[in-house]
Amino acid sequence: RVAACSGLEDGNLVFTIYDRDRNELFCSGEHGNPPFWDFKFADTVDCLIEARMANQDEDSNFAILLIGFKN
Question: How far apart, in whole angstroms, are the C-alpha atoms of residue 1 and residue 46?
Fold first, then answer.
């Protein structure tokens, strides 16, 4: 699970996940900007996560990104 937020409301931080070759695997902006998303992979995958504010006029000074694993 990847969870992301900035400020007091959900959906104001867009996160995009890429593989090693920078192919986009997921973008929260294409799914209504949920505050979290659960992923299932068949194998271990090295990824790059990029985050940005959904609204450039946002006043928030921080972003929180949490990555959780389930065995």
Answer: 15
